[in-house]
Sequence to fold (272 residues):
Amino acid sequence: MKCIGCCIFCAFMVRLNKKKREGEPNVTNFRLTIEYDGRRYSGWQRQGNTDNTIQGKIEQILSRMTGHAVEINGAGRTDAGVHARAQVANVKIRTDKTAQEIQELLNHYLPQDIAVTACEQAPERFHARLNAKGKHYRYRLCDGGVPDVFARNYVCAWEQHLDVDVMQRAAAHLVGTHDFRAMSSVNKRFKKSTVRTITQITITRKPREICFDVIGTGFLYNMVRILIGTLVEVGEGKRAPDSMPAILDSLDRQQAGVTMPPQGLTLETVLY
Fold:
């Protein structure tokens, strides 16, 4: 009799929960494209010791909207002070709001240095990080000339003039699949693979700045900024362009160049 009573109770609870769910909106996966000025923030990723992150700001608003904790998945984890023109994230939430309504709500409550430039319904299995095939970063640097006053927060000022042709020769050694441990800030306890693939590095001199465009399938912690710092030292004449393979083979962070300041770096696009 006790077993029969348990079965009846379980069946009742299943019907009750089903009835409750019938009145709720479905869970929908939304894809967000996000633009932000990273100067005021401690990076993209939510952190336990601060809520001053891009991910944290967006999650706070969505959590208030839905009435429960929400977690968003970002395509990349930009560091403190680094910007993004088109970061991509996805979030699964139970809501009856449209994508346009969610975009408008986020932009209404987000600070002015963070903007959701697009919001659309995505396939259920879409994941911003796991489905990403690559990322395009751009580093902007003013070498020796008069810096653009209006771009000072997004362009790194460098006193010495740089040789672009020599830097491009050095960059050719970095394109392809290599172990980039020497050009990253990962610690010695890092057990995952440090092999990454860079598909393109283009260095372009413009009227008042140099643009370093780096495209790859994935990047290690501080990898782009250290890679650029190493190329800058080549441009200054401190390193030979043919020294890049030896630096990579060393697997030693001390053999690579400086870590460039964060304000010159922007995540331009995520490739799918």
